[in-house]
Amino acid sequence: MSESPLTGDRFRIGYALAPRSVSSFIQDSLLLHAKQRGVDLIKIDLDKPLVQQGPFDSVFHKLYDEEWKKQLEEFSILNPTTIIVDPIESIEKLHNRVSMLDAVSQLKIENVNIPLQAFVDSNESLQDAVGMKFPLIAKALLANATADAHQMFLALNKQGLNGIKPPIILQEFVNHGGIIFKVYVAGDHVKCVKRKSLPDINEEKLGNSENLIPFSMISYFADNEQSDESLAKLMEAAEMPPSSFVNEVSKQLRHALKLHLFNYDMIRDSRVENRYLIIDINYFPGYAKVPEYETMLTPCFLDIAHQKRSRENGNLDQSENNKTHEAESNGHKMDQLENNKAHEGESNGHKMDK
User: Fold this and answer.
1) What pTM value is reported for the model?
2) Which of 70, 100, 165, 212 is found 20 to 30 A from 82 (Cα to Cα)?
3) Is 350 annotated as a binding residue?
4) Is 90 annotated as a binding residue?
């Protein structure tokens, strides 16, 4: 289906999500907030070809199978000004933890980095990785929607590595005061929240008999006498990174990733003042966990819809320019034709005179 021009001030945003994502992301509060601001969120029917649906100013999606890729390609050919959020080739870089953090190296910000990490693809290379400093976090190679992708371990020593099955990513654990900053990005709109994280690990705890600990049992390191009240005080006392800093990191990261929708986990290194480490990046995260998430997503929808309309206007302007140039060219051709006829007449007249 070819794209039809959209009129009026309302914007149509199509979304294609798995059922579990729909229930957690498309909530009534978001639908209402968006609608009040001129944005209609429209569920894409996954049982029908995408090219038969629309028109849309933008298509948001969190699907990656080959059939869906083909549908997006066909839709984009017929609807070149509709903005797809986001390109699958950009998303896929976040599904592999080898490439996930590559974009951080492109940031032009001195005090932002990633922990030392290594890709381990065999038991032999696993033992070679012991040059890294323990404890080590072991993460699955693929970062996708499967349960295995979210299963992580903390290896306290070399013996702990024996219980890990490659391929995996090993990442040095850095003490960070038990607080992690989760930064949610939706285009130019950013929100940072702080969450409880793994507690700091000292040498005494490293010397314990445990060698490998699943993250699900990581409370083993927490002080058993630490009350909910003391944890609340810890959270309250944790200083948030400056908003200007978070916004700049997010902006540069967004351009490096070529994505609109993602979040990243960032910690503050306890050993070095104001040194931050990005340890994980996720595509299309659970925005509904963010307080008032509607107020960051709706402006993002509007920004993208306006961008699409600008593309349309640009195409229309180009089309008008082409028509003008064509008309001028035809006019010149007609003038040239008339001139040729005039010259031809004069030439024939001279021949008759002779």
Assistant:
1) 0.83
2) 100
3) no
4) no
